[in-house]
Amino acid sequence: MKITLKKYIPYLVLAIMLVWHTVTKAQEQRFPRPEFEGGYTFPEHQFQYQRGPLWEYMDAAVLVLALSAASWLALKKRSRQGLIWLSVFSLAYFGFYRQGCICAIGSIQNVSLALFNDDYSMPFSALLFFAIPLLFALLSGRVFCAGVCPLGAIQELTGFRQVKVPRKVEGILSAIPFVYLVLAILFAATKSQFLICRYDPFVGIFRIDAPYTMVIFGSLLLVTGIFVNRPYCRYICPYGVLQNIFSRFSVRHLTITPAECRNCRLCESGCPYDAILQSDPDPAKKRPKRSWKESVLYFLLIPVMAASLAVIFYNLAPSLAIVNDDVKLAREIRLEKESGIKAVSKAAVAYFESGKSEKELYDEEQLIIGRFKKGAPWIGIFLGLSLGISMFRLTIRKIRTDYEPDRGRCYSCGKCFRYCPVKLNT
Fold first, then answer.
1. Cβ–Cβ < 8 Å for 145, 156
2. Neighbouring C-beta atoms of residue 269, cutoff 10 Å
3. For 277, left (φ over 0), alpha (ψ -120 to 50), or beta?
4. Secondary structure of residue 276 in the 3-state scheme
5. CA distance 327 to 344
6. Which pTM was predicted?
């Protein structure tokens, strides 16, 4: 039996990167800062935490080159192995070298904060990282997910087995990213917290300094990803929602076959993400048409669902506002006044020492809750429209003569290439 190690080389490189990165970080933290007596303090700029603007633009240039390479490999070259090697590069550069920051996923929060707060000036590099992958999604589909996103790359390189999730379970879990997206936007717009960065599951692996709970969470996702490929991308990633929407209108998109589809059905089980749309067995035969009344009913349900969720989220606004530190502090102080439970948090201690009046604190609380009440209905409308349109689309499915990828859900990873017997003429 002939054993080939060629396809395992990228995974060996990944293992070497992980070991090297861990050893390097351990060396950096081996010797802590000395503690001097006599009141000596370290200079403020002892360590450089932020790169200069030129280097940030270099990162954007690397992003454009990587996306261009992904587009060429997925659409023109149709090379699954090339996309794997691109994933290795992206993981090394955007993941371990740049330590996952700044990333397109986290830039959602910067954009939200800048749009709704005049006192925040958004870094231009953050805007580039937010917009460039979406522009490529309009041109070439989800090539950012294919081999450029470091979070997707680390999962792609650890997905050794393909276990399909039942469609009903997949449908329920795939709604989570939509909720995560709108909450991240709301929390960032109200200056409450950067939810995406706080719960990034892989930044702890990239930096070796995250809370142990997040390291465990990221490790569990990678272990799960061995069998259920890309669990973060499919069931959590908020930027994937935007990629899904933009990719549906892409000018060009990855195709399963490089030429005419033979309908051999070999690719039916080739996609672990269930993103292959099957052809109709006999296109010439008339399929039973859905009742037009059913389509009209689902269409009329769209504004009803949007309005209903808007009302629900409006009423949830005071509860959602608890993520804001000022609201949390106000409620802690109020609880002490009403029930005698002493406020002992660091924020409460700082408040008592500041001399701020209770009226000022409670006025700030109401101001923040008011901002949540303004924003919460809009996220309800977005969720209602997304759910309603998805249900409506099921009633108007067109007849397909070929096997083709779902432009929204396809990650352009190229796993389906090897199942197609039609070869690319080069």
1. no
2. 13
3. beta
4. strand
5. 16
6. 0.85
